[in-house]
Design goal:
Length: 311
Amino acid sequence: MPSFYKILGVPATANQSEIKKSYHRLSLKYHPDKAGPDSTAKFQEVRIGHGIRSTFIDLEQLNAAYEVLSDPAKRQQYDQSKKSKKPHASRRQSNGPYPTPPFEKDEFEVPDSSDEDPNADWEETQKRKRSSGNTGRRRRSSTSNKSSGHKRQTQAEDEYREQRRAQEEHRQKQKTERGQRYNKRKREAEEAEQQREENQQGQKKWSEKEESVPQEDMFEKARRRFMEEESARQLAEKEEMMERRKAKDVEAEERFEAAREAWKAEQDQFEAARKKYEEARKRYDDAIERWSHDQRASGSFWKSHGRETSQ
């Protein structure tokens, strides 16, 4: 019986995740939907030296190996049975019954393909498998393996179809993106080519123009253009300076007018104050004059009155 670890292609220390990944990978690789109706994927060509031999890949062995190794309890029992393989082999050689192991041996019994003839065809290999070993035990193990294998095969088919659908969508998306990138690069290349042609035409026209004009005339035109630009620059500077001066003169004139208006206002105030002062001075003089007149009149009155009383 071949090793289940060898069938799945994993080491004896592999964990459950590695076993599951290897099983799904091999199921998809050797699935009939992928291999075609003739199931040619059940045979893998292996080159040895200058010859080619066919190595049999049996899906029933693959399903049985995964069923045992995916269950920790069955895997432990299987590892223990591998350690006690030699006594079992000696008893099988003597055509004696199997000793009672800690688990049912039928659960792990699968068709052995390790001693097949590399040149044998498919039918002879299948006949030799069916004719070897205990028929009843093989029938029971084959029934259980087929039921569990059919279930896993259905799951593998669904996963395979889903994977194919996702791959097809991914390929279609990549194809669309490649088309878009190609069209974009094509447009950019056309625009670059058009720009290059325009530049070449412009350079050609400029070269023809330079060839048609003598070098001295070009220098004279450049000097004249420089003088015109310099004159225009100086004229612009002068105009700007005149504008600044005019602005300064206008500002100074405005300040002068404001000062003159303020001086006029002060003069008007002074004249008004002077007039008030003159009016007040006049009233004061009039009051002094009346008071003096009253004093004189009063003095003469008393003088005359005093003489009359003395007489």
